[in-house]
Amino acid sequence: MDDTGSLLKTVIERVRGYLDDADFDAKYTDQFLVKHVIMPALVDVWSRVSMNADNPVMLSYDITFVDDQECYVLPACVGEVHEIVQYTGLTGSQPSNGVPTDDLYPRHEMSVGGQIWRIEGNMLCFRPWPQYTTANTNMTWTVRYTTNGDMSPHYSSASAPGTLSSDRTQFTLAASPTLGQLDKRENAYAGQILRILDGSVFEERVIATYDPATRVATLKRPFSSSVTANTTHAYEVAPARAQGMVEAIALAASLKLGAWRKISQAQNQLLTQQYRAAIKTIGDNFANMQMRTGKGYAKDTRDNPRWRP
User: Fold this and answer.
1) pLDDT of res. 291
2) Predicted confidence (pLDDT) per residue in 138-158, tens digit
3) Residues 211 and 185 both lie in one domain
4) Is there a contact between 77 and 226 (Cβ–Cβ < 8 Å)?
5) Is residue 307 part of a domain?
6) 3-state SS string over the chain?
7) Is residue 265 in a domain?
8) Mean per-residue pLDDT for 77-103?
9) Pair 173, 208 in one domain
């Protein structure tokens, strides 16, 4: 692992090690590697790992219906929509127990009563169209979803730090990161890890929402008192820094760059073997974290026709 604790810098060092070449260092800068090799490799690995992961981060996004408006734009990071729910019927305030009281269940597009909702590109579309009535005064619904991992990771050193709020729940990202680039899409960093990389202890927190206009990332849980509040910090926004994840991303990036460099078939095969081992390791780690109930189909759910009106 790189001395800074950065996932990105570690991946870069390993890629340079796997593809040791006298011309390599001169031609490809760290910034070039992050933008054009590591980013796509990261998304590839994320996609494969998250398919069977037991620990996906569940995110929430509120949509307020407008009379006769069919489609609403979703955040940039939406990977899978799990449910569209209300928590308190018509009152509009979420109860402390978080149990849904209403659920919009999608149907077939040829259903007689309408499909209810479907995803079209980056939009969530409803049929029949939302209608305001005196009986339905609350037009706000919560979309529960997981991230697709498609974002711009970056690392910022102490010379280009971010700022932690006084309550340790919000972090303002650097305008010009040291490595990588700032993603300017709404909620692009939701579900990713914000990693503080200074002090005697490195801490990580999941980002709940991200506002690109202010560069403020709101965290699902605040940092501990070990992290100094209301001051600047070196940090990184990237996936979880598990060794299997780091190795899988580094090898995937090496294979992509190796295609550019026209490496030998023997070297490609060796890298592929190592990549398969790394992706298996991190896949097994994430797929078996919740073993209390094990794998299987649950019957006592809201999707069971016996419970659905």
Assistant:
1) 80
2) 678 899 999 988 999 999 999
3) yes
4) no
5) no
6) CCCCCCHHHHHHHHHHHHCCCCCHHHHCCHHHHHHHHHHHHHHHHHHHHHCCCCCCCCEEEEEECCCCCCEEECCCCEEEEEEEEECCCCCCCCCCCCCCCEECCCCCCCCCCCCEEEEECCEEEEECCCCCECCECCCEEEEEEEECCCCCCEEECCCCCEEECCCCCEEECCCCCCEECCCCCCCCCCCCEEEECCCCCCEEEEEEEEECCCCEEEECCCCCCCCCCCEEECEEEECCCCHHHHHHHHHHHHHHHHHHHCCCHHHHHHHHHHHHHHHHHHHHHHHCCCCCCCCCCCCCCCCCCCCCC
7) no
8) 72
9) yes
Give residue 118's domain range. 59-147
Same domain assignment for residues 113 and 180 = no
State how far the Cα of 83 lies from the Cα of 103, in Å rounded to an integer: 7
Looking at the fold, whether 223 and 178 belong to one and the same domain comes out as yes
Domain boundary (95, 124, 147) is at 147
Lowest mean per-residue pLDDT among 28-32, 95-99, 142-146, 221-225: 95-99
Q: Tell me, what amino acid is at 127? A: R
What's the total number of domains in the chain? Answer: 2
Is there a single domain that holds both residue 182 and residue 212?
A: yes
Task: Write out pLDDT tens, residues 172-218.
Answer: 999 999 999 999 999 999 999 999 998 778 999 999 999 999 999 99
Of 238, 267, 286, at which residue does a domain stop?
Answer: 238
Residue 37 lies in a domain: no
Residue type present at position 116: I
Average pLDDT over residues 111-115: 81
Which pLDDT value is given to residue 25? 67
- pLDDT number for residue 89: 47
- The CATH code of the domain that includes 200 is 2.40.30
Q: Are 108 and 128 in a shared domain?
A: yes
**Confidence at 68, pLDDT banded by 50, 70, 90:** confident
